[in-house]
């Protein structure tokens, strides 16, 4: 047994035709955390998740789930993980109750140990237990998929874009349940395009871009990288070139009178930046500022990886 809920070493995937989706990824997902796996579209997140789910065969590397190697011990590896896919897929002619009962049967859960109504209650679908699944709204179907992934009580739950197309209230209910599962010891792996969601929920975040892991850090440390602050200064006369000063990390001229200055807020403050502009004899007409956040870190890291 290892301390990692999921351990990935040298994971590569080359699809037929030569497209390489993953380039030797090494990643450990600690037990008991809510772990964010982020990246732009086509970065390799879904390929990674599909390999964990047993839906895609890897080209190289080793993967273990809860200490079970997916090649040497596939049965226990699959029993240790629940996957909530991005696509809403299940038989529309089964009711939610039948969907969960059938799924529990696939995993060999004996009838006496099944938690069908408990799980439906957790995802607020008790009153829909016997309705045809095709009559459920998109948000209800999404929540049913979460319950379906939990029928065999796996210690690891992977949520692939779980709140896409879900309204704010249902999203909040879903996250309340995810936090409850995590408090009970379930390791959660989350992919999302909502960066504020990842910032709020995740203990740690890894970012994949072009099939490569570009960072894997505690969320607080990652957000702490956002020391960059941008200030946009409109001056009182036309400029041929942007002035420079030691306290500027970067400066660019936007139009003939607007300067966009980036600086490190841990080293200087806005007053010092504006004073440096005025030292060149420029009058300041207007100023606007913008704080950096996880989105800025994400864009900065993925841009530099593209370079």
UniProtKB/TrEMBL annotation:
Residues 6-235 form the ABC transporter domain. It holds the Pfam family ABC_tran. GO terms for molecular function: ATP binding; ATP hydrolysis activity. Keywords: ATP-binding, Nodulation, Nucleotide-binding, Transport. Belongs to the ABC transporter superfamily. This is ABC transporter ATP-binding protein. It comes from Sphingomonas crocodyli.
């Amino acid at each position: 047994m290892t301390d990692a809920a999921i351990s990935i070493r040298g994971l590569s995937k080359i699809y037929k035709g030569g497209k390489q989706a993953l380039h030797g990824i090494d990643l450990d997902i600690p037990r008991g955390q809510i772990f964010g796996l982020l990246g732009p579209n086509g970065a390799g997140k879904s390929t990674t998740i599909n390999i964990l789910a047993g839906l895609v065969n890897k080209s190289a590397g080793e993967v273990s789930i809860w200490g079970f190697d997916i090649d040497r011990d596939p049965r226990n590896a699959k029993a240790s993980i629940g996957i909530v896919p991005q696509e809403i897929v299940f038989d529309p002619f089964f009711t939610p109750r039948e969907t969960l009962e059938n799924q529990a049967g696939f995993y060999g859960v004996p009838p006496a140990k099944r938690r069908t109504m408990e799980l439906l209650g957790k995802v607020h679908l008790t009153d829909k237990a016997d309705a045809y699944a095709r009559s459920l709204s998109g948000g209800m179907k999404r929540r049913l998929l979460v319950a379906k992934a939990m029928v065999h009580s796996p210690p690891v739950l992977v949520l692939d874009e779980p709140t896409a197309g879900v309204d704010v209230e249902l999203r909040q209910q879903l996250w309340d349940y995810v936090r409850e599962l995590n408090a009970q010891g379930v390791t959660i792996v989350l992919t999302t395009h909502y960066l504020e969601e990842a910032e709020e929920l995740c203990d740690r975040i890894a970012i994949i871009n072009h099939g490569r892991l570009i960072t894997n850090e505690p969320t607080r440390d990652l957000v702490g990288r956002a020391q960059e602050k941008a200030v946009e200064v409109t001056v009182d006369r036309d400029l041929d070139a942007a002035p420079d000063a030691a306290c500027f990390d970067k400066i660019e001229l936007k139009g003939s009178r607007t300067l966009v200055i980036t600086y490190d807020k841990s080293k200087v403050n806005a007053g010092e930046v504006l004073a440096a502009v005025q030292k060149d004899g420029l009058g300041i007409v207007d100023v606007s500022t913008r704080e950096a956040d996880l989105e800025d870190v994400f864009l900065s890291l993925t841009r530099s990886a593209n370079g």
